[in-house]
Every structure is written in C-alpha cells, then in structure tokens.
Specification:
The structure holds two protein chains of two kinds.
Chain A (H helix, E strand, L loop, with lengths): L2 E3 L4 E5 L4 E3 L2 E3 L5 E8 L6 E7 L7 E2 L2 E6 L4 E6 L8 E9 L11 E2 L3 E6 L1
Parallel strand pairs in A: 2-12
Antiparallel strand pairs in A: 1-4, 3-9, 5-6, 5-10, 7-8, 8-9, 10-11, 10-12
Chain B lengths: L3 E4 L2 E4 L5 E7 L5 E8 L3 E8 L6 E2 L7 E4 L5 E5 L8 E8 L11 E2 L3 E5 L1
Parallel strand pairs in B: 2-11
Antiparallel strand pairs in B: 1-3, 3-8, 4-5, 4-9, 5-6, 7-8, 9-10, 9-11
Classes of the chains: A mainly beta, B mainly beta.
Chain lengths: 119, 116
C-alpha cells in the first residue's frame, strides 16, 4: 500500500521570501503521478502542481516548483516570492496508474502542512 | 459555471440521526468520489463510483452508504450518525479511470458535519 508523509504540520514564512514544504512517499510502483493541492480558508481544494514519475525534469508553475527525487521518494514544493494569498493548507498526493498507464484517479493524501505567510 | 456542487454546506446532527449529503456535477465526468477530511489525517476516501452504475469502497467506508443516482449525482448517506463522523466531507469528480491525469480531481466546496 502507498503512503504519503508530510512531516511539517505548520510552517511560517515572511512575505516575498521562499519556503519549501516537504513530502515523502512510499510505493513499490514505478510509474505514478504526484500532486500538490492547496486548501485556503475557503475550504476549496485547488490543484497547484503535478509531476509524472517518469519525467526527470521538475515541474514548475509560475512561483511554484517541485524538487522530485524519485530514488529518495521525495517530492517537495518550493514557493518563491511568497504572497499573503498563499496562506493555506497544502496537501501532497500520490496516484498510481492502471496497468495500461492511465490514471486511476484515486489519490492518497498526506496529512497536510499549514502555511502562514506573514506580512 | 461548470463545477461540483455539494449540499448542504453545514449540518448538525444528533447521534443516531440519519442524513444524505448530495453531490451534483455538470462536467460530464464519469467518476465521482467522497472523501472526508479530519485534522491531522488529510483526506481519506470513503466511497467512489468509477462510472454510472458502479460503486466501490474506499479506505474508510464503515458507517456510510452511497448511491450513484445517474451520471451527474452521487449521494452519501449516514444511516445512524456517530460523533466519530464529525468531519468535513468533500465530493470530487474526474473524467474517468484511464484518462489523462491533467486534471485528476475536481472538488466541491465541502460539507461541514457535526454530530453531537
């Protein structure tokens, strides 16, 4: 069974600075997808960034980037130039593929990291 | 606007009462899911429906039942609510198993349920 671990329950960062959120996972699968979701106080779940395990290049989306270390089973999220609107709970999630390589769409979530961006 | 709509947004129940959480989507997605979110535990899958007419248990199905009424609607029922079911419940949808991962899950805005 797959597990996802986020070891930082809470973090704080000053506005405009950079912060890195940690995520590790355990799986025997070779092909899978990884995601970071953001949940602001509105409770809405928002997809931030995604990474295919077969791709060595780290995914980036504007101020958000990941450091994907497949051998170490690590998938950290870096937020550059932090903004007040980045204050949210961040969830790391794992999704294995079907045997023919398609999405299973059943995500396994970590316990979340609550990020507070301070003015 | 396309999306996933959950009703109600908030609910308070007494122990032993029953209720049904409703979820409707207009995204023409095949698969629908119910998750619960608890502090320190992330989101856990309760039940899912890979396609219309099918339902399967997730990680924490005990105490719940589901109905995939049609392609658009997927309801979650608590027959006899318990305090341990106090949680935030999320409905989510996806195009379907085997599809592109580009947008794996679209979430509703959640239902906060308190059982006293």
């Amino acid at each position: 069974a797959q597990t996802v671990t986020q070891s930082q329950p809470e973090m704080s960062v000053q506005e405009a600075e950079t912060v890195t959120l940690s995520c590790t996972y355990d799986t025997s699968e070779n092909n899978y997808y990884l995601f970071w979701y953001k949940q602001p106080p509105s409770r809405q779940m928002i997809l931030v960034i995604r990474q295919e395990a077969y791709k060595q290049q780290n995914a980036t989306e504007n101020r958000f980037s990941v450091n994907f270390q497949k051998a170490a089973k690590s998938f950290s999220l870096k937020i550059s130039d932090s903004q007040l609107g980045d204050t949210a709970m961040y969830f790391c999630a794992f999704m294995k593929l079907t045997h023919y390589g398609g999405a299973t769409n059943k995500l396994i979530f970590g316990t979340g990291t609550l990020l507070a961006v301070q003015p | 606007n396309a999306g996933v709509t959950q009703t109600p947004k908030f609910q308070v129940l007494k122990t032993g009462q029953s209720m049904t959480l409703q979820c409707a989507q207009d995204m023409n997605h095949n698969s629908m899911y119910w998750y619960r979110q608890d502090p320190g535990m992330g989101l856990r899958l309760i039940y899912y429906s890979a396609s219309e007419g099918t339902t399967d248990k997730g990680e924490v199905p005990n105490g719940y039942n589901v109905s995939r009424l049609n392609k658009r609607e997927f309801s979650l029922r608590l027959e006899s609510a318990a305090p341990s079911q106090t949680s935030v419940y999320f409905c989510a949808t996806s195009p379907g198993q085997g599809s592109s991962y580009n947008s794996p899950l679209h979430f509703g805005n959640g239902t906060r349920l308190t059982v006293t």
